[in-house]
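tmp note - NAD-binding D-isomer specific 2-hydroxyacid dehydrogenase
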Amino acid sequence: MSDKPELLVVWPMRARQMDELASRYELLRYDEAEDKPGFLTAQCGRVTAALTNGSWGGMSREMLQHLPALRLVASSGVGYDSIDVAACTEAGVTVTNTPGVLDDDVADLAIVLMVSARRGLMQAHEHIRSGTWAQEGPRPLGSRSAGKRLGIAGYGRIGQAIARRAEAMSMEIAYYARSERPDSAHRFEPDLLRLAEWCDVLVLALPGGAGTRGVVDGDVIRAIGPHGTLVNIARGSVVDETALIEALEQGALGSAGLDVFSSEPNVDDRLRALQNVALTPHVGSATVETRSDMAQLVVDNIRAFFEGRRPVTPVN
Ligand code: NAP
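out:
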């Protein structure tokens, strides 16, 4: 039997960091187990640390009940809505995430989705690839983004990185959150519906979870309007997706740029069939550079835990 400490792998990271972890720890590969409940019961009674992902792997209250010795959940990703943080806190388990290192990539994608949705760039790309340009001629005109009004719902690290990019596009910016940032040059709007009525583009950079579930409802979506755009790089759960699809189908909302969906990876057929959308498969942080930085932060948190130091980026 190995004398290395055990690490439960609920959701893995990139190969290089998994190799580094494997050199230090005995990896218990729950992610690869066929009988997952049986694996937890048989192998994980003494495990003190777990590696997971805040979007997909998570850590539920039920899983915690099978892990009585657990003291650390090290998660990759800044969002942690799939982790039951309250249950972890009750059980004396520290949760860590990876804030800050992914802001630029996610903000870049938000701008790309905004421009792509408003100008139909994904459809234009397909127009060339499918060979229809020569038969059907030019594509319909799109809508400008520069100089327009941008509402940012969720004005934290990523929301502010989006604002910096939008400033360079001469966009007029206002933001929604629970609390005002007195140091900000942008206007605070405490009412999400009023922000939607005011803006041409509403970008969502809120956390997921119970506090924001469905806050972008049919009223908010329709308030953005037939010439407006909704961009969601936050979480699918923040938006009433049925209301969004209806508004896009009926032209009550002009367009949408979406990186996140209510039921990933199974995106609603009606959404996939629409022409006034730009869709990406939850790739906000998916660059080699950012995923390496995220994975390194996870490794640093796990090492700090096993060496008796304070975690680098604790959530609770
Ligand atoms: P952050 O720095 O914590 O910012 C969150 C913002 O949302 C803050 O302005 C916060 O302000 C506001 N907020 C939180 N709860 C709220 C509520 N119930 N109602 C209204 N406003 C609320 O987080 P971040 O690092 O910018 O990340 C934001 C989110 O982006 C993540 O949680 C994740 O879901 C998503 N994300 C997506 C991807 C992707 O691949 N697409 C990648 C990374 C992150 P107040 O506290 O004042 O309300």
